[in-house]
Here is the input.
Amino acid sequence: MNPRKCIGSAHGPSCRPISFSIEHAAKALLVAGSIYAIIVLLALLLSRVGVEDQFCLALVHAAGATALLLFWKLGRWGNARYSAFGAALLLVGCGFRVHALLDALFYGARLENIYKYSNVPLPDPVFDLLLKGELITVAGLLIIACSWRLKVGRGVELYSFLFSARAVPLKISVLVYGVAFAVDVLRRVTGVSFGPLEQVASLFFVTGIASTYFIAARRQSAIGQVVLASLLALPLSTLALDSGMKEEIFFPFVPAGILYWINFRQLSARLFVICAAAIVLAISQLYVHNVRELSWRSTGDLDIPTTVLVASFVYNLQDAQLMDALDDISSRVNMTTAHAITVTLADQNGYEPGAVFGLIPASVVPRILWPGKPTMQPGAMHTARILGIPGPLSEISSSTAAGFATELYLGGWWIGVLLGAITFGWLLATAQQWAHRFGRGFGHQTLCFVALYWTLRFDEKHVVYAYTSILFVTIFIWMLVKTATVFGIRHTLTSR
Here is the structure.
């Protein structure tokens, strides 16, 4: 089914039941796992006979991409094969494996990213460590996608927001976007603190961007959709310029990117936007580095006006090296060495179930009910783990990603990976099924959009944030739908 036709429907297309049984799952996992094992064993053999690590590692990444793509092909997604959470997770994971493959070929195995940490124990040969980290990561992605697909069952096509953009009334989308913009202005411009409601305030940013998609997708012309989504994204992105966080700067443009991709299918059009995105990301890396150098390190002043930051960046841009920025951003996107570091810390220093899973119970208590709740800092905790810093986390200014599946491994060996991945897929699918029953318009479609967005940086999520995000977003959607009902604002057009 053409996504543009789906967008143009007032109620979304009728969704056909598509079964996915234990037998389907076993077949898909067997095929993907067998091909993966064969290629990985070949890479291991080549490593043993003296082939350079970068080529063996590229082969490992090719194995991961192939396995994820095979499960995607056998997953029986129907018209949700690109936008449902499980399908998108596999495709995005495949894309990151392809990137890591190219990164290995162009820049090598990047072992210097591991060797620079004297506190990180390394086995011999180190290639085995890189391989194990990727094996855990690919296995985790496959298990999550499989668990999610089994839970949603025959109604998988219901969990694609691409199919029912017009099932969301325009009024509630505009109102949520307006509130999101107002809250962002209060937080970033006037410096208003929402105290225990800070988590709620931050969730408006996410739902406001989802509203951007629902508003823009109602336009009839493809160009109109992309232009409107970009215009709506611009204020939110501009407000985030002083944050030094690429995610907050570029996330508002995700709806525009999705609408461009589904409307312009010519190879030349897509290659153009990919190349443009790479250049923009490289420039953004230079900008973020400039912001962090100026406000985080040099002056320690976190309230430098955006105009000053931009002017400083423009002045320093003449001395910047674009290729170095591409190298830097490619290194940051490639999580191979991050996976390896987490795995070797677990194997050599012991597993840490309390540090990985113990934060979850405390995190689920909202700050409005626990005003003095300590700040959860799993990223700073992992930085301290890598550097061997015994001091308080408040003195650590950097946050390090552990990799979702490899952090599960850190928390509980392979059992942690298996149970943690199954649980996450099941929990998210359960939340989406609830949202579909409770608020089939704005609530359900927003959660589907957010779930798709999570796949874009899923590997960088810490375990505690991944699990609790499901709960907090679900509660937030319940609050929005209930508030809309109280004030007589329609949140759905469907009668299903």
Remarks:
- Residues 404-438 form the longest helix (35 residues).
